[in-house]
Amino acid sequence: MSTANVRTIVRVRPKSLRELSTNAVDLLTTDDNRNEITIHPPPEGLANSRHRHRVRGPRVFHFDKCFSPSAIGSNGQALEEEALFQNTGPYLVHSTLEGYNACLFTYGQSGSGKTYSTIGARGQTGLVPKLSGFLFKEIDRIQAETNATIRVSISVAEILNETVYDLLESKESTENDIHADASTHYFSQGFSQFEVENAQEIDAFLRLAAKTKETTIADESGKTHGHTAIIFKIHQKIPKTEKQISLQKESYLQILDLGSFGRNSHQKSENGIPSEFAGNDESLSVLNRVIASLTSKKHDLIIPYTDSVLTRFLQNALGGNCRTLVLACVSPCDFDDTFSTLRYAEAARKIKNISVINTKKIYGDSDENEFDTIVSSLESDRVQMKRHEEHSKKLLAIIDDLKTEYESRIRSLELQNTALKNHLCLAVDAYLNPVELNFPKKPGNKSQKSLNEMLQMELTEFQKDVKLLAKDFEGTVLSPQEFNPPRLQNIEEESLRHDSLLD
Hints:
Elements: E1 2-5, E2 7-12, H1 17-21, E3 28-31, E4 36-39, E5 59-62, E6 65-67, H2 75-86, H3 89-97, E7 102-107, H4 114-118, E8 120-121, E9 124-125, H5 127-146, E10 149-160, E11 163-166, E12 171-173, E13 179-180, E14 187-189, E15 194-196, H6 199-216, E16 227-238, E17 247-257, H7 276-294, H8 309-313, E18 323-330, H9 335-348, E19 352-355, E20 359-362, H10 368-432, H11 448-472
Parallel strand pairs: 2-6, 2-18, 7-17, 7-18
Antiparallel strand pairs: 1-19, 3-4, 4-5, 8-9, 10-11, 10-15, 10-16, 11-12, 13-14, 16-17, 17-20
């Protein structure tokens, strides 16, 4: 276990052609021996400065190393580049090969020389190409001395507007795809990884990443303003010696070229979409809050790592299991942005990291073959389980479709079955209990018996009338006794009519 503060290196770039043409005043005084930088207020004063309440005069900042500007194209510039590498490259490479995680990230305003320092320019090699060559030289030396097996993998990603792009796979990675390594807890998993064997292959992958960036996420001017992350994964298998047993180490070397913050980054572009600078300012603002929280004297503060994708990347580098270098690049003539950069770079120097050697596995020589067999078997099982999982997903989709279809058919058959049961019940009930048709009686109608009595009374009255007529027509042959009375019929009430009562 090793406890060390974050190392901070500040590089002051030379004046640009625009600054030379306008006779811009140099506001910085660099003391390379004492590693101090003094910033002076501009000649016009601090009335329009956002730091006017913090600054009353010259301000001195202290760092681990400072580099004053050299004339462009001079021998001094080449010496400065080499000195910059000697103060960064060996420390990062040796830390990584010892098994520690290591990180270098740049910080500064636009045009301060961050990308120039890390990647380089035409005719000038940056830190990453030099570091790649030095890394493989050290790997060759270690392998020759210890007979160790060391593998190096590379990943390249771009963070733009809180979205992560995998530049070696030309795809956008979701936040759920990116996670911490189980053994090192390093926030670098979820990207494509390619094994490399020399510095030339690293250079080829960086060119591929740059081409992907230009064709997929660059703006109309062909530039991107996000944060570029280059991640090296170093896996070591060290055989048993007289002084130590066999072991495996796995560590990460992460280099981040952070995007720039600008004064007008809060403004939107012409089509109403927030510019990349706005996304940079948001993530860099979270980074500043993380630095302020880690260096605060209050111990109950919550560190806002999860407020930005960038700070999740840097969570191990700032206050975690990592050896970290901050390369702050500043302009000599811009007071506000330079003061902000120096202020946060000096604060980052107070952050303490607790780094440990990432030993992945320890095992005896006699168990090496068995261990390799187990690892190979587990890897084969993992691939097979992944295939089974994909097959299971397809089967589940088919089962869901069949389930929906058969549930619909079952509901239809249940309705038909219910209808048939009801119909059968009605048929059996009608057979066992036949219905007798009884016509309802109309209101006011008399029963059949009362009607016959009424007819009998009418007949009696009729006979009386006949007798009276017989008296009037004496001498008629017919007598009342010889008259045959009409025969009455019982008929249904519905068909009773007076003209059919007599036969």
